[in-house]
Task: inverse folding
């Protein structure tokens, strides 16, 4: 397990660098804005089953980590993004704090069992747990990019990403199909567990909620095809314009210590993570413009 963890951490590090280079290849102005995401104000709430902080460690983004109990009295700033690791067993007082935070403009990200403990209780009517549970399995997913310029710049038609489902993960039922956006879905989850949604979002008040089935930190992938069995550097060739400088950089980072399936899985989940940071940055810019216009 330790070796697998090290491989996925390295894959996340490679994936984050790939995101930067991919944007440089397809949209230079977006690439310049992407660099500013390092300045995002991120709070991570410790969990028992998910470890989002390990992803941030891998991709090199700064964050503040707090206990679940700290949410009872913590002064949350609407400019922050709060990530709650599974299971998300927060107190009623903490839940009221989170609801107020979102209503004032904060972004909240939750995983798996936090669907029942946080989202259903604090933000009812949007999504809910469908009452079934997954096994420990890896499924193919589809990242829906048609309406999202950021994800569209990163994810291509040839991508075949996978998502790891922890045993007893909670499938997501979308209750309000007009207000909830499904950004990642899986036909395999629908066939096995009744619902296709993997990663969803919806606006609430001035802020936004993001939720995903299972855990954000992907501990493994599966080599289902000959393509998946290839070296991690094969994925570089699919995604990037490569030259000697880039080859040297990625070889030093250990891109081939992971296979293509692992690098692709890390790239896909990192794209989703950065999508949240990107959305928050855009929202903050809009709020700042509105404030300036009100002052005139």
Result:
């Amino acid at each position: 397990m330790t070796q697998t963890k090290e491989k996925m951490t390295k894959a996340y590090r490679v994936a984050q660098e790939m995101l930067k280079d991919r944007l440089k290849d397809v949209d230079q102005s977006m690439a310049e804005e992407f660099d500013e995401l390092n300045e995002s104000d991120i709070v991570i709430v410790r969990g028992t089953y998910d470890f989002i902080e390990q992803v941030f460690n891998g991709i090199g983004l700064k964050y503040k980590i707090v206990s679940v109990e700290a949410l009872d009295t913590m002064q949350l700033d609407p400019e922050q993004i709060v990530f709650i690791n599974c299971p998300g067993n927060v107190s009623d007082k903490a839940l009221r704090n989170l609801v107020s935070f979102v209503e004032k403009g904060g972004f909240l990200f939750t995983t798996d069992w936090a669907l029942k403990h946080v989202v259903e209780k604090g933000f009812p009517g949007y999504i809910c747990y469908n009452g079934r549970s997954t096994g420990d399995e890896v499924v193919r997913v589809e990242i829906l990019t048609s309406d999202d310029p950021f994800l569209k710049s990163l994810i291509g038609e040839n991508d075949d990403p996978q998502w790891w489902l922890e045993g007893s993960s909670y499938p997501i039922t979308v209750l309000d199909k007009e207000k909830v956006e499904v950004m990642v879905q899986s036909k395999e989850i629908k066939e096995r567990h009744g619902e296709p949604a993997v990663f969803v979002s919806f606006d609430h008040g001035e802020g936004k909620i993001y939720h995903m089935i299972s855990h954000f930190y992907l501990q493994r992938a599966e080599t289902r095809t000959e393509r998946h069995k290839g070296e991690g550097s094969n994925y570089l060739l699919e995604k990037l314009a490569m030259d000697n400088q880039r080859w040297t950089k990625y070889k030093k980072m250990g891109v081939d210590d992971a296979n293509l399936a692992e690098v692709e899985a890390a790239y896909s989940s990192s794209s989703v993570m950065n999508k949240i940071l990107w959305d928050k940055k855009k929202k903050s810019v809009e709020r700042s413009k509105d404030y300036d216009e009100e002052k005139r």
